[in-house]
Amino acid sequence: MSTVTREGIREGTVRGRLGDSPPRPDGIAKVQGSFAFSGDLSSEGVLWGATLRSPHPYARIVRIDVTPAWKIDGVAAIVTASDVPGKSTYGLISSDQPVFASDVVRYVGEPIAAVAADHPETCRRALAAIVVEYEVLPALTDPERAIDGSHPPIHPDGNIIRRQRIVTGDQSLVGEVVVEGTYEVGMQDQAFLGLEAALALPDPGGAGVELFIATQWLHEDRAQIAACLGLAPDKVRLTLGGVGGAFGAREDISLQVHTCLLALRTGRAVRMAYSREESFVGHVHRHPAKIWMRHHATAQGRLQRVEARVVLDGGAYASTSSAVLINAVTHTQGPYKCVNATVDGYAVRSNNLPCGAMRGFGVVQACFAHEGQMDKLAAACGLDPVEIRLLNAMETGDSLITGQVIENVAPVAECIRVTSELPLPDTPVGGLDGDPMHLPGGAGLTADASHIRRGIGWGVSIKNLMYSEGFDDYSTARCRLVDGVASLKFATSEVGQGFVVLAQQIARTVLGVDDVVLEPIDTTIGSAGSTSASRQTWMSGGAVDGACRLVRERLFEHVGARYGVEPVRLAIDDRDVVDTLGSLRVSVAEAGAGTVFEETFEHHHRPTEELDENGHGNCHTAFAFVAHRAVVDVDPDLGLVKVVQIATAQDVGVALNPMSVTGQIEGGIAQGLGLALMEEIVLTDGHVRNASFTDYLLPTMLDMPPVVAAMVEHPDPMAPLGAKGVGEPPCISSTPAIVAAIRDAIGKDLHRVPVRPADICL
Amino acid sequence: MSVLNPTRLAEALEALAAQPTALVLAGGTDAMVEINMGHRRPSAVVSVSRIPELRTWSYDASPDGTSPAQLRIGAGVTYAEIETEPLCTWVPALGQAARTVGSPQIRHAATLGGNVATCSPAGDGLPVLAALDADVHLVSASGSRKLPFAQFMTGPKRNALLPGELIEAVSLPAFQQWQGYSKVGVRNAMVISNAGACLAVDDGGGVRIALGSVGPTILRCPDAEAFAAGVVDIDSRSVAEADVVEFGRLAAEAARPIDDHRSTAAYRRHAVAVLAQRLLRRAFPNG
Amino acid sequence: MADTARQMGVDPLPDNQYYVLHVNGAPHEVGDAWIGESLLYVLRERLGLTGSKGACEQGECGSCSVMVDGELVCSCLVLAASAIGQEIVTVEGIASPGRPSDVQQAFVDCGAVQCGFCTPGLIMAAHALLDRNPQPTDTEIREELSGNICRCTGYGRIIEAVQQVAVARSQR
Questions:
Q1: Does A557 map to a domain?
Q2: CA distance C150 to chain A (A)
Q3: Is 80 exceeded by the pLDDT of residue A675?
Q4: Distance between CA atoms of A287 and A353, rounded to whole angstroms?
Q5: Residue C56: DSSP 8-state
Q6: By three-state DSSP, how is residue B10 classified?
Q7: Chain C within 8 Å of B37 (Cβ-Cβ)?
Q8: Is the pLDDT of residue C31 over 90?
């Protein structure tokens, strides 16, 4: 177990190998402002593109008349559904989403047309000139009406995207202690800062197109784009433009097909960029959820059976709702031993905004519910929140309610214990200096310290890593070694998480080099899979590691032949190739001089299964665990909250780059805090009420507390580098920990996030 | 659209006389949001941020020897300036309100005049102006006039400016007694007020309270103020706990809040009661 | 483009087809522009200074922060044509050409950069803070930088970077 310390991070930055925290290769460009995000890219004679969107949540399109827009000087192209040359729909799991709506619009913001013009202002005027006549239809906005069938289908695929039950063990067991609750999670937005933007360059004659795009999975984008453009995939070339955060919002395509279509139509370069208001409707969101749970336990607090009904509102199109649902239902037991379960889960369609991937992917919702339940169990059994969790903590060899055995290291109890040993804040309510900024309300001067109550709360989580249900989400990487300089090629989307620095660390460690060049991230190499599901360290790290090892093998063969040494005796020591049984020592650069070594490797994880109708099957790849403890100060009369500290111990396997891991922990906790206290897209009858940063509130530096983080390191033998993914766990159990702390402070039940002031004080 | 950057007030007034519908642009923290989002396309812009007369302030210890000290703040004075010395000492409640405006970036640009001209019921400085009975000084090419703030703000984002007029300054008494400001928002920085209040004790011993974000205009609470006058003791700075509660109740009764996407009427009314109680208790900490 | 501007019902700056902005110590001509463009738009699209970023067009995120006459402001809220004659400094001009400032280097060293989109605005805000308050407390750092939203880092490493610079400067 290691605790993050400033000293620990500072050491080892010079060598930059695994375990160190070297500076990221794009860091200087980013601090100087010269790093090119996709929205910074332009081209000679470029046109601007913009999208016309539906103002109605559900309506029939009676007619579209674009002729008034053509009269505006500077307009170069206008496209609608009839201009889509290939497949008219797309989607990550089922292709149910139109490139442009043609007969019906199913959510506020659905694209209907796009224009290309010489200036964003011309685009704005052209969009305003397009006439669309609608027949407004009664919108389906209550998920229960999708389930009970009382609303007619709003899509040919029906109103239920997926249903999955889990039926395991004793279905009639009633515990000595029974607690239940209904938990709600509001619609959170990923709110990455780098707004959607793309640059498309058409090939002469329109035979193909090059797209610079900020996305999470180049190859999946390419497949969908090519299908819609009616082009072979190799005619659609994608290069990763700098990505300003993703968090799941870039898994679905948004402006990709539109931008390419306009470029092919005009024969000119086209740029498209979303405004913040547009971005709120331009990508998917976290599924709002309503989860009923009933937990059965012995009088001593041992969990025996979990019942749950999970309803996720998937919005107008399917996106990844099916997979999000599976995550949610299979994680209802939490990181706790449990052998009996009755779970019923629905992902439904509605005329609300489409929902899909967001960091945590269904487990955020399940965790908020199961952690609320564990606290209720604790109270009913006379145990404290730590005791009930330690009593039931999962271990390696335990099963999920799906029957899958957890084979990974599973240090749940250790995460809880380590967290509990992290020091509590030593300052009282209001701080030592009486600065009002320490109090809830801050500069608003709403309270004195005497008005405030402090509370402590807990959350613990399990999270699957990589993709599930039989999906082979492999990753590819190529390594090249020339004269002591390694270069790496991969299509792994760098969205800020730091894969680019990890890749260099891997190459330095395996090959003993210092200089590692990163080639452009594009589709000229095989797929790396999505930057999501906490998978890239494991999968793309594994691919880079595999490619480097193959290169090292070739190097050792070469050295062996040159110096008459069995390759199996050779090893890398510092920057040299050495004979472990002899005296040969030659620098890597000299050893390979004049020869180019190049190898490509695909890393696959072991296969997984689909769930059967009873929810049984080894559907997940691997698991990670985390514990959070929150300390909050609450103003019970105004309902304002200030989080004072978050402590956490996370099961990371191995901290390959402690500074990057810290970044993921702190950043994920901020998003968990946002969901707990302030982040929600407010919809009324399908209309967004708060599509701006004025009213969709993200945590600021004054909302985010210090984080005390410990990394629990037990190398996972199933992971190629021993390291587990770390991106998602921080945002999962931090939310329920904060809510539990508020409950502790005010002695009142709360069952919805984000918690609003009125929930606390009225 | 044309843009004029005058460096003298007379120049600006001439331009406004010629184009009375021109947008008067100071810090841009309201107007540029509307322009950026395509909601506003003024045909002419007169930028006033370079006019020195609008960026000054003056403190008159006692204009006639008996009335309270008067502070005159130019319309172009920014909230960053109001947050610091000497303005934050002369009008502490306005300094407190200034600290809650937007962010440091916003405060460096946002002006008192702009906040007054916008007349948003959630305008952070406005409850202070209402509580202190500030005057708004208006000027045009044809002359000048002043209006009490309560007459200047006529509704949500509506004011009594006539075509060709701009706000020159705001004047208000610099009372020597206690004053304070509170604002409720969901997060701890950069947040629109869900309920705000300024309580000020004037030099005559009267208690004034003005509410923001809970009505179409900034609301004074005559019943609460009359009640307070009868129950507080200025010399001992005391008030009974039961009277504090009643004061809060009366203030909440004066509120006319609505439900919107930010909050509910019920919460806002409740918050007003709490803020009023806590402000009164701060002004009169004893008893 | 000027014809387009007139046709759209908006006029170029009267009597001039261009105006001049002083950015990073040098005059820059802005020509043939729609007069309603924000300073952020002009910096990025007309002067090729894409370091300042737009993430909200409302002054609610700080990604577009620049210095105008020594004050930290949101360039998305500045009408470019009203910034004539003012000294504008962007992230491209906050340090000597080619050499990162101590603040910039500290951000890299401390892991305060992930996706990097908020970074230029934070660099500007951190410089402004430390110039005004060389020894800020933790609370002062948080309040002065509260106008800069970061979605990736959770702020911990950013605060550490600012503290590291403050310490280093005090030892010089």
A1: yes
A2: 8
A3: yes
A4: 9
A5: S
A6: helix
A7: yes
A8: no
Residue C59 in contact with partner chain A when CB distance is under 8 A: no
- The reply to whether C165 touches chain A by the CB within 8 Å rule is no
**Domain co-membership, A315 together with A412:** yes
Q: Which residues form the domain of A598?
A: 475-603
Closest residue of chain B to C73, computed from CA coordinates: B105
- Rounded CA separation C33/C20 (Å): 12
Chain C residues with CB under 8 Å of B106 CB are 59, 74, 77, 147
pLDDT in tens, A572-614: 999 999 999 999 999 999 999 999 999 999 999 999 999 999 9
pLDDT in the model for residue A586: 97
Average pLDDT over residues B100-124: 97
* CATH fold for domain C102-170: DNA polymerase; domain 1 (1.10.150)
Q: Would an 8 Å CB–CB cutoff place B190 in contact with chain A?
A: yes
In residues, how long is chain A?
A: 762
Kindly report the CA angle at B183 between B181 and B185, in degrees rounded to 5?
Answer: 165
- Indicate the domain borders of chain C: 2-93, 102-170
- Look up the pTM and report it: 0.97
Q: Name the pLDDT band for A702 (thresholds 50, 70, 90).
A: very high
Q: Kindly report the CATH number assigned to the domain that includes residue A111.
A: 3.90.1170.50
What is the pLDDT of chain A when averaged over all its residues? 96
- CB distance from B267 to chain A under 8 Å? yes
Count of CB pairs separated by less than 8 Å, B with C: 102
Token pair of A236, please? 């659609």
Residues A354, A435: one domain?
yes
Q: Cβ separation of C79 and B2 shorter than 8 Å?
A: no
Classify domain C2-93 by CATH number.
Answer: 3.10.20.30
Greatest alpha-carbon span in chain B: 61
Kindly calculate the radius of gyration of chain C based on its CA atoms and give it in whole angstroms.
17
In the predicted model, is pLDDT for residue A9 greater than 80?
no
Angle, alpha carbons A79-A80-A81 (nearest 5°):
135
Q: Do C60 and B3 touch (CB under 8 A)?
A: no
Q: Residues A441, A557: one domain?
A: no
The mean per-residue pLDDT over the stretch B213-229 comes to 98
What ipTM did this prediction achieve?
A: 0.96
